[in-house]
Amino acid sequence: MIRRPPRSTLSSSSAASDVYKRQDVNGDGDYKLLVGDASRKLKVFSGVSLGAESPLMTVPTAVCSFFMDYRDEVRRPNVAVGSGPFIFIYKNLRPFYKFTLPPIQLSEVEMGIWGKVKDGGMEVEDAYVQLEAAKDEGTRLSTRSIDFLSCDTAQSKIGFVERNKSVAPSQQTVITAMAVLLKDKDESGGLGCLVVGTEDQQLFILDS
Question: Is the pTM of this model over 0.90?
Answer without folding.
Answer: no
